[in-house]
Specification:
This is NTF2 domain-containing protein. By secondary structure, the chain is an all-beta fold. It has strands at 2-6, 12-20, 28-38, 44-54. Helices cover 0% and strands 64% of the residues.
Length: 56
């Protein structure tokens, strides 16, 4: 699931909630939040980022 929110300075706040599966390991949930900030060439870069792997 992904949610996006525009910010007043033209940036975009993005939140992604999902599940990660590698090899034979059990499925783990994750939450990834980041801010996409516009640059002078018309593209975006990640200015802030938080990744949380939810182990239970």
């Amino acid at each position: 699931m992904t949610d996006c929110q525009p910010l007043p300075d033209g940036s975009i706040l993005v939140t992604v909630i999902g599940q990660l599966k590698t090899d034979d390991d059990p499925v783990n949930s994750f939450n990834h939040c980041f801010v996409l900030k516009p640059n002078t060439t018309g593209s975006f870069y990640i200015s802030n980022e938080i990744f949380r792997l939810i182990l239970h």
